[in-house]
Amino acid sequence: MLKIWLVTIGEPISTDYSNVRLHRTGILSRYFLDHGHQIVWWNSAFDHQQRNLRVSKTTNLKVSDQENIILSFGGGYEKNVSIQRLLDHSRVAKEFRKFSSDLMRPDIIIASFPPIELCEEAVKFGKRNNVPVIIDYRDLWPEAFINLIPIKIRTLGRFFFIFTNLRIKRIFQQATGIIGITEPFLQIGLTKANRVRNSFDGVFPMGYPKQEYPKEIINEALDFWKAKKIELAFNGLRICLFGNIAKRNLRLREVIEAAQILIKLSINVQFVICGKGDGLEGYKILARNINTIHFPGFVNAIQIFSLMKISNLGILPYSPTIDFNNSLPNKAIEYFSGGLPIITSLSGYLGSLITEKDCGLIYETKNPKDLVEKICFVYKNREILKKMSENARTLYENELSADLVYNAYVKFIENVSFLRGKS
Known about the structure:
Shape: globular
Number of strands: 16
CATH superfamily of the largest domain: Glycogen Phosphorylase B
Number of domains: 2
Strand content: 15-25%
Distance between the termini: 19 Å
Helix content: 40-55%
Oligomer: single chain
Structural class: alpha/beta
Mean pLDDT: 93
């Protein structure tokens, strides 16, 4: 049995609300527990999804004899990109430093990057206590923010991130190993670490668990959609989206413009856009006169599952930034699990994957007419769409299911611990 610390903030935990959808660390923790290991998960007192505090001070939540969740208090924040969020992360890292010495030393630490401050503290703890630390590399930070700076002043912007980049390089250099969510992520991490790949490095995508619900629960979720005026027997094409409706990286303007064009062409296409975020109200105003776009708000796991059952496509209208173009977003894998082909503006890693596996289409960013063209293609070619749907489900079952990904992840960590013990 290994004593494993998982260091990840910003993810939901099982006690947040009913039918909660666990993310990568929450799912991974289940697999470690199933393999007989002991888990301490360092999370935040602030619920990133619901934007509220779970507790008013750092709290050690005992879930079972094998699992504890430590909710570190940082104060919370309102906006994703804000000084308030940076302060929250700094305080959470200080709480980790304060309370980590009081716990039994783990056999291994898996720290999700970002945030920087918490990864720094995890690596420092590992160095002090001779504990291997694996960085689970999920987000290209600060590259994603640098690319938001206007090109004319981007060089100046890079200057302000010099110290930050030095801190990040130190984290990757001092970590025992790196896990990337894609091969490009791993290679970028190795470049930061200034070394070649070794036995402590690996690639494990965002595996998604197979969902199964009792018929009566599914029927309740379908009733929810009927109440939202989403017809179950829809003879057109339904495209769904669920996630954080953020100004920074979600480009819904082109989707809204495409919906307007499709109406003029008398093409029966419906968009169901689920989620909350700082861009939601603005997009709702833009789409206020378009009856083919629906914004049902935040939805739970069963409601998402049932929506995918009555949809034809999943859409990922992300800005093609360096982080998204090198990533395989977990929303893509969720679509694949529901047998939904993807239509996306990402031409990088995801674009290459759906082209290779023939399970989706790519449209040009900032080009609603091209999006309309791609939608019309599958609207008029239902047999091709059906084949894409089969390919999407096959890709999920053969490469991206949680059972495949996270059982392999657990074996990898067990091997890292064994190899480290021999060294």
